[in-house]
Amino acid sequence: xxxxxxxxxxxxxxxxxxxxxxxxxxxxxxxxxxxxxxxxxxxxxxxxxxxxxxxxxxxxxxxxxxxxxxxxxxxxxxxxxxxxxxxxxxxxxxxxxxxxxxxxxxxxxxxxxxxxxxxxxxxxxxxxxxxxxxxxxxxxxxxxxxxxxxxxxxxxxxxxxxxxxxxxxxxxxxxxxxxxxxxxxxxxxxxxxxxxxxxxxxxxxxxxxxxxxxxxxxxxxxxxxxxxxxxxxxxxxxxxxxxxxxxxxxxxxxxxxxxxxxxxxxxxxxxxxxxxxxxxxxxxxxxxxxxxxxxxxxxxxxxxxxxxxxxxxxxxxxxxxxxxxxx
Length: 327
Description:
The protein has about 325 residues and is an all-alpha fold. The protein contains eleven helices and no strands.
């Protein structure tokens, strides 16, 4: 019975066709090794059975990892695309804002460049009205009497409707020229004709210096105008820059430097609208330096040469003050 069972086991182990040649003696000789062979076969079968699920698990884990990576990569690409769209939108907004800033800067520069001319016109109109309607007017009523023979000689002729031209009469008191040594390391007056147009940098520089003066920062304004005149000595704002720098110096009671600047306006820019005011301030500066004879000569020239202008009105008031002081 055992022999039959062993034969069956050997038949299952040996390949097909090999068992046919095995005799009973061969079966008996293999009998001792059969249990060990059976254990080896069982262990191998168990290992193979365990290995197959492990590979399946690895495949499943790899599939999950690939899906996670694919999803993460897709999300990253979507975020990059969204960021690129936002960057393009921000660039467009920046370009739009830069254009608006440039437009506003140009507009402000133009407004500042015209401010001093408008202020001058308003001052002239105000002072002319004060001159005609103040205490010195005929009858003291503040209104001109149509029956009156006209204004007295000290008040000059009535202002005409057209703006008075800027001129320096031949017999007016001569404004002395400044020497190169008077300018030190600062800017020099232009040697040739002025340009008709200004660059954006030139407008911005003039605006910055004028704004400092308007805020009462005289030290900074003097330095800013100094830098401006060194960079743009022959620009269309040159005469105004020399004048306003002189005003800042006058406010600091630097009368010698102020005299130099106002003299540059008169001598180097004879057609400038700032000439009457520059001559007036020369008279004021000489008064502050107690050079009363020269101050009176300058102020008298301003009063005679620019009748009806604010400079003439202010010159007359200062002359009247000097008369009261016996100077």
